[in-house]
Known about the structure:
The protein has 330 residues and is of the alpha+beta class. It contains five helices and 22 strands.
Amino acid sequence: MPVLNIAYVGSEELARSLAKSNDVRDIESYVFKEQRDGETCVLSLLRPLRHPERLRPLLSVLNVAEVGVVEVGAVDAALGEVLVSFGAAGITRGIAIVNAVDGGWVDADQVKMILTQAGLGSWAVHESMPDAHDLREELYSHMDAAGSGGEGQSLVLPVDQHFNVKGVGLVAIGYVQSGAVNKHDDALILPANETGVVRSLQVMDDDVDTAVAGDRVGVALRNLREEALHRGCMIVAPGSEALVRHEKSIIEVKAAPFQKRSIAVDDVIHAAVDLQFVVGRVTAVEGDSINVDWENSLWIRAEGSPSILITQLDAIPMRIMGSVSSIQQA
């Protein structure tokens, strides 16, 4: 069941015209399923709530999405931060829809210029609202081109929530970022370093034997303490070397467009990658190299790491400092 995860920033009205509301947390999920070439193909729209007040839901969506859709109601600082975030996350496939709010007017050429400056010059721009069917078809065209990017690799499954279900037991929920997890597999939980057994798996409300990269999955676990799970913990295969644990790092940051601030000693920064949002303090800056002590462990994939976004929450109006161009353990 191929799934295309789409980072969606726009109105609830447009989201509901494209897909059915499926889940609401700090992120709204909308799902559209269709039989295509003999299999069920899924569009999964992930809409972060309360931006620009809160940044983390937007970053979490960008951590898992392959394609973006932004409805442009006005050209303002919030739009600039959104587009810069998409660019820093490397989401080069996407659609911008000009739909001015409250009888206003948006200059489509200005939107195209900002997209290019943010590194999103390859995005399609609709200067008026497209038909919902046509928009879904445009999104489906990205499904094969985007790909999951993680099949055939080692399992990396960050957990964003967990709970006990009567009759099922302990359930961890998250997105398979790479690799696959199978029913009856052993599962290692980091950083607790405790192992459980996968009792069952559920994807899109269906029981499955395997969940693959791109799937949002509920993993029922047995022989595991609930205390081993927390938001941001990671599920990998026992003995896996898929992740490297960073307590201190030396990083280089590619500065985000429009960002006028520089990172300095004693600054507090946040790293967002694989659904983690880890606080760090800068201890040294030497040329392009920045030394950071992390408050909690930062887990980085040994191979094929996605973009690591660096933010400063007090850097209004542009909290995205940039993306990590290199990282090593200090």
